[in-house]
Write a structure and sequence with these properties.
globular; nine-stranded mixed sheet; alpha/beta
Length: 286
């Protein structure tokens, strides 16, 4: 039997469509330079904190801890993980906080941030970080840390703020997934990041956002666990799991014998050492 060029082309095109995952109008991409440590809350292990110190330039690099999300008026120099960084050997750790936008927009405040090797956002309510720093010179200084090859890290609220869509950003309570603050600092573009996911049985909550914004990549991080992001790829670090909501399913066992939900209700788990390409939306095999 002879096949026309057109029929071969159509067959190849159909095969191509069937052999890839869903198409998305918006791409999910990480930072062009620098690294992110995005942790899911709870107690963060020393291995993750040491990784952050390493990515920030080592023990002598200037590290800044920003505890603003917790909502206090002032903080000591041991606030959040600052004391832990020093215990692990970091030599130059500062706690910086303001809820005064004029101070956050001042060159004196922002310049110290820009010169840091790493900035760590503490937990609390992520909208407080937006209210304090969004659109100011300090927010630009945070991004400068990445441009200089440093690291941005954070846990709980400090994880969600790193995404482009601000999950749980409502000022009334933390159960409203799409609230009065919807824009994060966007170190990863086209993503919504949730935290405390398994510890608080939040594994279905991201669908509230993804039903309205299906192009977003959804990621949920459990307590004590982190995504280490470099470029468009993240690696899981820690004892629990990262949940990925990309309208696909992945398992070491395959999926041919599994009873799976519709694409818009699928998610899967990644564990310590697993790597994921956010731009290609695929698990990277070792």
């Amino acid at each position: 039997m002879k096949y026309s060029f057109l029929s071969v082309l159509l067959t190849f095109s159909l095969f191509s469509v069937l052999s890839v995952g869903p198409a998305f109008a918006q791409k999910t991409t990480g930072p062009e330079s620098g690294s992110l440590v995005i942790a899911g809350g709870g107690r963060i292990g020393d291995d993750i904190l040491l990784k952050f110190i390493e990515l920030s330039g080592g023990m002598e690099a200037p590290l800044i801890v920003v505890p603003t999300a917790a909502g206090s008026d002032s903080y000591t120099q041991d606030a959040n993980v600052a004391k832990d960084f020093r215990r692990l050997g970091a030599q130059n750790v500062s706690v910086m906080h303001t809820d005064d936008r004029s101070e956050a927009d001042s060159p004196a405040f922002a310049e110290k941030i820009a010169q840091a090797g790493g900035v760590w956002f503490g937990g609390g309510r992520q909208w407080r970080l937006v209210d304090a720093y969004g659109g100011t010179a300090t927010e630009a200084a945070f991004r400068k840390v990445l441009e200089n090859g440093g690291a941005i890290g954070g846990s709980s609220a400090g994880a969600t703020i790193q995404g482009s869509y601000l999950a749980r950003g409502d000022t009334k309570n933390n159960q409203i997934m799409m609230g009065d603050h919807e824009v994060g600092f966007g170190y990863v573009k086209n993503i919504a990041i949730d935290q405390h996911v398994l510890a608080r049985n939040r594994q279905f909550d991201l669908f509230t956002i993804l039903d309205e914004k299906p192009d977003l990549l959804g990621v949920g991080i459990d307590e004590g666990t982190a995504m280490i992001v470099q470029g468009n790829v993240f690696e899981v670090m820690g004892p629990s799991y990262v949940l990925v909501y990309d309208q696909q399913f992945w398992s070491r066992e395959g999926s041919s014998l599994k009873n799976l939900p519709e694409d818009n209700r699928k998610f899967f788990f990644l564990r310590n050492g697993n790597r994921y390409d956010m731009l290609a939306r695929e698990v990277l095999r070792r």
